[in-house]
């Protein structure tokens, strides 16, 4: 039976679930990479990646031969793990896989992932409507930056535990249906996406697992203005910006990547190479599906 983290009255269930999570992290398996010997993911590798995602909501992997890391690999990797329905967003390519690199022209220039600047902590698709909830993703590195560009990850279930241990009221605040609103997206005077409101913590309707919708941005974001919510946001910021033992930092190299159940993540600023063929390039596939369980 899956524990329901939104039932704050189930103290026994919470303590059992919390203990299981903490024991998994004590073994430090969340920092280990799964090596893939070929472009095709075998059954053994699939199970290991899925197991890590089940426990920690993300998994690092490495292709033994980085040259296999093309878009077909990214798509097939996702499919082997149940990530079937890809999210076609404003900046994704025609195949719904985004080529994440610095862009100097076009629509991409208005979005931080396509610059060399630091990203704030977030979960993907926090501005999407509920029917387009992002549950899983593949982020694959084709070429790293010349320096910088580290990826930081935090299992959103661990963030939940840390917040709840501080105060269950913070969880209640983040469960409010109007706690976090993203204003409309307007380009050249035209509204291309309406305002999107909703909770931070919710129960995923497909899997029954905890889902988190969050952004640490201070602009173009509106938090409900009440005292408990303000305290919860401040606590969350502290968890993300101090020496949190459950945050990992890893600089992806060519042929390496992250599979995640849309855990909290960010990226540091970076310095790109001078030559176009050496500049940082990552492929990102975002899905309406979670990594399947085996």
What does this structure look like?
The protein has 294 residues and is an alpha+beta fold. It has one domain: Double-stranded beta-helix. It is built from six helices and 18 strands. Strands 1-2-15-4-18-3 form a six-stranded mixed sheet. Strands 14-6-16 form a three-stranded antiparallel sheet. A hairpin with a 2-residue loop joins strand 8 and strand 9. Helix 4 crosses helix 5 and helix 5 packs across helix 6. The mean pLDDT is 91.
Q: How much is the radius of gyration in Å?
A: 19 Å
Question: What structural class should be given to the helix and strand makeup?
Answer: alpha+beta
| Proportion of helical residues | 10-25%
Distance between the termini: 16 Å
Query: Strands of the biggest beta sheet: in what spatial order?
Result: 1-2-15-4-18-3
CATH T-level fold name: Double-stranded beta-helix
Number of strands: 18
Strand content: 15-25%
Principal-axes shape call: globular
The largest sheet is: 6 strands, mixed
């Amino acid at each position: 039976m899956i524990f329901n983290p939104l039932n704050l009255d189930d103290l026994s269930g919470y303590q059992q679930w919390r203990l299981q999570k903490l024991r998994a992290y004590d073994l430090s398996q969340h920092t280990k990479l799964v090596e893939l010997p070929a472009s095709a993911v075998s059954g053994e590798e699939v199970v290991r990646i899925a197991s890590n995602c089940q426990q920690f909501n993300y998994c690092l992997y490495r292709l033994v031969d980085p040259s296999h890391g093309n878009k077909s690999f990214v798509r097939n990797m996702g499919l082997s793990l149940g990530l079937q329905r890809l999210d076609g967003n404003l900046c994704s390519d025609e195949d719904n896989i985004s080529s994440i690199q610095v862009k100097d022209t076009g629509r991409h220039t208005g979005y931080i992932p396509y610059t060399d600047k630091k990203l704030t902590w977030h979960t993907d698709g926090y501005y999407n409507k509920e029917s387009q909830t992002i549950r899983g993703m593949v982020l694959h590195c084709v070429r790293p930056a010349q320096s910088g560009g580290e990826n930081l990850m935090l299992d959103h279930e661990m963030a939940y535990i840390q917040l709840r241990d501080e105060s269950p009221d913070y969880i209640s605040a983040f469960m409010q249906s109007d706690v976090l609103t993203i204003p409309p997206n307007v380009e050249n005077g035209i509204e291309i996406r309406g305002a999107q409101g909703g909770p931070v913590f919710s129960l995923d309707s497909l899997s029954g697992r905890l889902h988190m919708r969050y952004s640490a941005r201070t602009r173009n974001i509106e938090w409900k203005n009440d005292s408990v919510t303000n305290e919860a946001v401040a606590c969350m910021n502290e968890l993300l910006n101090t020496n949190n033992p459950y945050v990992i930092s890893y600089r992806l190299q060519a042929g390496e990547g992250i599979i995640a159940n849309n855990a909290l993540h960010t990226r540091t600023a970076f310095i790109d190479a001078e030559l176009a063929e050496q500049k940082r390039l990552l492929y990102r596939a975002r899905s309406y599906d979670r990594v399947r369980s085996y």
